[in-house]
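Hey,
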Amino acid sequence: MNPRILLVEDDPTSRAFLLAATRALPAEVDVASDMAQAIALATTHRHALWLFDANLPDGSGSALLQSLRARGLATPAVAHTASHDPGEHAALRAAGFVVTLAKPLPAVSWATALRKALGVSEGPSGTAEEVAVYDDSAPPVWNEAQALAALGGNAANVAALRGLFIDELPASRDAIAQAAARGDGDTLRAALHRLRASCGFVGATRLLEASGRLHAEPGSGAALRTFLAAAQATLSSP
């Protein structure tokens, strides 16, 4: 049986990425955007793992963890934060988090950390095939020459179309991740086909390659994690 996990994240883009990456473990995921929702879900359901944003609209991840511990709940918890400050990460571990993660991060790194926190064997993941996705030979996020060629050398048109592409990418990414989770190969391939065309127009080289791999291997967990990481890198790059 897949583990049930509680994800707490208030930023919509980060929440969508982390939700898709967590479901791909595979896992059943409950989602909250603030402390109040998180407490309601944590006290209603039994979770194998909690994933708490360190900073929430109505408090902090540490305060949330303290509140749930006071209720007698002992579920292991992971903290995720946009901060890279070693002192903040040390404080979160001192507050009781078993792992702390700095965002953004590749989906494969997220999945590896969650498996470690769950005490689940990595199995085939972490092999040379997956590690190679993130080495220095990975394609660049953007290919300016390709984008300019597609749009007749007009840089203003490239910028405008790329902005539209970025605006629509989270919804496209989530639809693809959800189709993969359902095992809906037809919907997955159709969505990837549309996305690959858009990638070509705007020069989204890394995402184009990752989309092609997932299109060819729709049942591959490694291909899905590579796709999610490429989508996050594209959203995070200027």
